């Protein structure tokens, strides 16, 4: 069959049914995963099937997934017993297993061989299909180490630059996935550029960045919508590098927020909430990526679904770094 469309009512005209379960599974698989071998867990839904525990039994938390096109949900924590090895450390897998005969998707432990590597996934179309959740390394004394192998769904759609589909992305990625708007008043716009790696490779990675000057207060703004999963306690996480060496130098980075709720009558006269400032010692060497974080306590009472304008700017009066402070990425995370 070269072409098909579904669903349609009836069972005779055109592409009307009957449809098999495989028709539906194939459709969902193509919609929600790019790689059926490992993708499937739903990001930001319940507790994302997180596994915890340092000894047996371990606990698989709530969450949902598409396993090779079949929808699965776990609405209560599930315990998995992991027997201790007798001779040497063993590596097991915890997977979601789709079984055609049983017609179920279930949490399954695949036992490894003592002293060996991780056991293989079973992926036989029409019989059994596993997607990974965690590796479980257990010693003869029963001590367990968990390695997260969850891969989240990657729907086959494109998100326009400047827009955020919060149901797909977590944490909320503000830069470079969103447009970094230039402030129209109050703060000078920080410069933006995209640099190519200086490596000798033929294909070189690109590095977008926002450059904060060392002599003038500069900033950029981001506009995005908070997802329905937003619960509060926001923290800004970022990655930066210095243009040149800065031994024992400080930067005063500021975050300010204006949030707009549905039916907010004052949307056209919003003001930024008081600043969330962090003065930190910058990386001493130039061109070295370094992480930072800023707790956002003045968040303009942001709640799930709000549209947010976020301003990030550098206060040079409390900074003594030299040359540019180069912002590489920015995320808004929440509990």
Quick take:
This protein is mainly beta. The chain contains one helix and 23 strands. Helix content is 4%, strand content 40%.
Description of the molecule:
The chain is mainly β. It folds into two domains: 35-152, Triple-stranded beta-helix (Sandwich); 172-333, Sandwich (Jelly Rolls), CATH 2.60.120. It has one helix and 23 strands. It has one helix at residues 21-32; strands at residues 39-41, 51-52, 58-60, 63-67, 70-74, 78-80, 90-99, 104-110, 123-124, 128-138, 144-148, 151-152, 172-175, 188-189, 191-196, 206-212, 218-225, 235-242, 250-260, 276-281, 290-295, 307-314, 325-333. Strands 13, 15, 16, 18, 21 and 23 form a six-stranded antiparallel β-sheet that branches. A hairpin with a 5-residue loop joins strand 2 and strand 3.
The CATH class of the largest domain turns out to be Mainly Beta
Structural class: mainly beta
Count of separate DSSP helical elements? 1
Helix content: under 10%
Distance between the termini: 48 Å
CATH architecture of the largest domain: Sandwich
Which geometry do the CA atoms define?
globular
What Rg do the Cα atoms give?
25 Å
- How many domains make up the coordinates? 2
Strand count, sense and barrel status of the largest sheet are:
6 strands, antiparallel
- The CATH homologous superfamily of the largest domain corresponds to Galactose-binding domain-like
CATH topology of the largest domain: Jelly Rolls
């Amino acid at each position: 069959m070269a072409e098909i469309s579904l669903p349609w009512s009836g069972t005779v005209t055109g592409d009307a049914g009957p449809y098999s379960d495989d028709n539906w599974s194939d459709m969902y698989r193509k919609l929600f995963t790019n790689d059926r071998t490992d993708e499937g867990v739903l990001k930001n839904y319940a507790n994302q099937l997180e596994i915890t525990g340092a000894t047996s039994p371990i606990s698989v938390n709530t969450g949902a997934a598409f396993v090779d096109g079949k929808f699965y949900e776990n609405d209560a924590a599930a315990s998995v017993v992991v027997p201790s090895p007798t001779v040497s450390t063993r590596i097991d897998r915890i997977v979601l297993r789709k079984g055609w005969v049983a017609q179920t998707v279930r949490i399954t432990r695949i036992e490894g061989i003592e002293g060996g590597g991780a056991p293989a996934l079973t992926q036989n179309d029409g019989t059994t299909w596993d997607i990974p959740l965690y590796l479980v390394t257990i010693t003869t004394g029963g001590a367990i180490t968990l390695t997260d192998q969850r891969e989240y769904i990657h729907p086959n759609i494109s998100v326009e630059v400047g827009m955020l589909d919060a149901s797909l992305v977590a944490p909320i990625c503000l830069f470079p996935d969103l447009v970094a708007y230039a402030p129209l008043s109050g703060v000078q716009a920080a410069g933006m550029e995209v640099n190519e790696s200086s490596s000798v490779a033929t294909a070189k990675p690109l590095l977008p960045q926002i450059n904060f000057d060392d002599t003038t207060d500069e900033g950029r703004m981001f506009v995005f919508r908070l997802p329905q999963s937003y619960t509060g306690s926001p923290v800004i996480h970022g990655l930066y590098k210095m243009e040149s060496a800065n031994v024992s130098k400080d930067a005063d980075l500021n975050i300010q927020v204006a949030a707009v709720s549905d039916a907010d009558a004052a949307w056209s006269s919003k003001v930024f909430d008081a600043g969330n400032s962090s003065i930190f010692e910058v990386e001493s060497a130039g061109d070295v990526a370094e992480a930072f974080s800023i707790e956002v306590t003045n968040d303009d009472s942001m709640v799930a679904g709000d549209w947010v304008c976020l301003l990030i700017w550098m206060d040079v009066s409390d900074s003594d770094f030299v040359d540019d402070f180069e912002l590489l990425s920015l995320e808004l995370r929440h509990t």
